[in-house]
Amino acid sequence: MFIKRSELEEAYLLAEKARLKLWTVMDSPIEEVFEEDEQEAIQMINTEVNGSYVKIMINDILPRAVGVSKSSLEHHWLSLMHKALKDVEIRYKKVLCVIKIFSPAHYWDVDNRTYSIIINSLRYNKIIPDDKFNNLSFMIMGDIDKDNPRTEIYLLEHPNDPLFFVIPKS
Fold first, then answer.
1. What pLDDT, on a 0 to 100 scale, did the predictor assign at position 2?
2. Which H helix or E strand runs over 12?
């Protein structure tokens, strides 16, 4: 059986739209109909605040930026980020935002993901004054995890050294 790539892409977009619609319904004001145990089962977000960084783990992967309504993506991800950051009191003058996507698939391009929503959420939630170059740098990383696809976001004060990532040889 031969399957066309265009049919696979169409199926992906339909599944992504349905998934976003499902999360919108589950995140609506009617959520009190869920029992406490059920709410834990659908826990999407875990935020850890350490003295030197903030780690946000979202049990969802950033979707591709093509084909899905931008307003649906923004509603979903801005809502997730607002929940993740609502109790975070750390404010940065300049933040380094590291976004690591654990995808179930081994093929994806880093420039086709909707990471700008995460970056904008840092400004909306007043973690940084604005998202201009002098207040923010970001890095996209990836890995494969078929059993636990997720997005991890790390926020830390931006190092002054532009070569902070170079590990000195011992």
1. 76
2. helix 5-26
